[in-house]
Amino acid sequence: MRLSDLPLRKAAHISEIDWSSLGEAEAKRLRELGFDEGVAIEALHSGSFFSRDPIAFRVGRMTVAIRRAQASAIRVALA
Q1: Percent above pLDDT 90 for the chain
Q2: What pTM does this model have?
Q3: Where do the structural domains in the chain lie, given as residue ranges?
Q4: What's the CA gap between 3 and 15, in Å, rounded?
């Protein structure tokens, strides 16, 4: 399942990240924020009804907001 499709308040682990589909700056930012295979993640909130951007996630103890396009490059497995 893609991270962009993860239901709110569901716990998951990052299983794969398609780094090649992200821009260099986007990939660097996600790495700096702790996005990596095996990391626990939970979807907390999504944006407005029309765009649904950004999406807020809990990554470890941090809350991070990323765009839906970035989240679609990340595959997760439910915990």
Answers
A1: 84
A2: 0.88
A3: 3-78
A4: 10
If one counts every other C-beta atom within 10 angstroms of the C-beta of residue 52, the result is 12
CATH superfamily of 3-78: Ferrous iron transport protein A (FeoA) (2.30.30.90)
Contact 78, 11 (CB under 8 A): yes
Kindly state the helix (H) or strand (E) to which residue 1 belongs, with its residue range: none
Q: Do 62 and 54 touch, CB atoms closer than 8 A?
A: no
Question: What residue type is assigned to position 26 of the chain?
Answer: E
Q: Distance between CA 74 and CA 2 in Å, rounded?
A: 6
Work out the burial of residue 9: count CB atoms within 10 Å of its CB; fewer than 13 is exposed, 13-18 middle, 19 or more buried.
exposed
CA distance 37 to 49: 30
Is the pLDDT reported for residue 49 higher than 90?
no
Q: Which two tokens stand for residue 74?
A: 């990340």
Distance CA 44, CA 28 (A): 23
